[in-house]
Amino acid sequence: MNELELRPQVFVSDFIQLGDIVLTTTPDPMSKTIRKVIGADISHAMICVGKSSVIDSTGDGVHARNLERLIIEPGCAAHVLRPIVPLTTDQLQSVITFARAAVGTRYTKIGAAKSVLAGLVAGRRQFCSRLVAQAYHRAGANLVPDADFCHPGELLNSAALFKVPNVLRNLNAEEEARWRGDIDHVQAMRDSTNALLREARKLSSEIESLNDIDAYLVDHPEADGHLVRALRASKYLELWKGVFARSAWQYHVALMEVSESSTEYKQRYCEELVASEKLGQNRFVLNHAGYVNVNALHPRQYFALKIELYELLTQLHARRIKAATTWLERKGLLEPEPRTLLRPHTPEWFASLREWDPKQAAMTEAAIQVAGRLDVCSVCADEPVCDYVLLSVPPAGPGTYRLCDDCFRIRSCDEPMKTF
């Protein structure tokens, strides 16, 4: 065996798609035991839910981690599996949504240990292979005989999956030093999420995931104060600051130009980010809309703080997209696309507004229905009206309004706009 074969390896993210199943192992004694029991060369399973982002279940519970920061030690196996029958767009979205919704769910060692047995009753806590199999089962794709109790070896040998080739590459000594010296910053998210959930579970032992907190709070408004204090104490609302500080160059094209990263790396980063954005709806936008909806029906300070958080995250994400797009355009690697303005009160306009502010969309639709006409103010349904566009491109939503004179004067103080 030559020296290159003994080098640690990392995943080549370019070859890994959303929904792919990532199987790994480590030199850890527990991992060796699992491999011996299940008769396979792997001991852990994950689902790819975003560019270089996977979700798995470990002793910390269900959390996201950076695929590009996972080092496969020499002598350890790793595989990437993909459905033989490609998932539909709806199925893929279902798999990803299921995995993301499980974030924070506690790990069950007992369930993992019993995963090689049959006839057991599944609980709500997760272990790695169950999370993967259940996510696919919920989407209508059965990978193993029993999605509630399965082990990584069953996934590896599933007739419904095939191995994706060339997904690993060797690290040279310089890369290895840099990789190992780079802290896994996703750990901060895991720690914060677990801190929030520990406090929430003091209210109810039935709370497993972050989504369970939302459902509990809908039925128990008296818990709002406790959960708001837990949310703030966990530092969950401040996690973005660390991300921004570590990667400020990603948010402004001028900083990107002077970044010490190589041109090849910047090009790959920008192209992957833009391509990922075109795959589907931004999860920050979806989460913002979800909390706007639930807060309209069940006003809680906890939900209001989440609305503010996802509005900020959407704005920051939009800055990343703009910086990456501009950098590619300047390098002649991307054709500039003219800004598309949606005429207010058209079906396309309402669809865009619903994604960002479903409450305002519903109010405008109701006002139009009462007025019996489309040429009324988007806010108050008065007339006469004029169509306006925001001077600053919003992070989400149509960015256009149909306003009466009074609403224009009020809105334009904080949001400069012009007619179109």
How is this structure best described in words?
It is globular and about 75 Å long. Helix 7 (186-200) runs antiparallel to helix 9 and helix 13 (283-297) runs antiparallel to helix 14 (301-330). The longest helix is centred in the C-terminal third of the chain and has 30 residues, at 301-330. The strands form three sheets. The protein has a six-stranded antiparallel sheet. The chain starts with 8 loop residues before the first strand and ends with a strand. The chain is 47% helix and 12% strand. With 420 residues, it is α+β, with helices and mostly antiparallel strands. The chain has helices at 29-38, 89-101, 109-113, 128-138, 152-156, 173-181, 186-200, 210-219, 224-233, 239-246, 253-258, 263-277, 283-297, 301-330, 347-356, 358-371, 405-414; strands at residues 9-11, 21-24, 44-50, 53-58, 61-66, 78-83, 161-163, 168-170, 386-390, 400-403, 417-419.
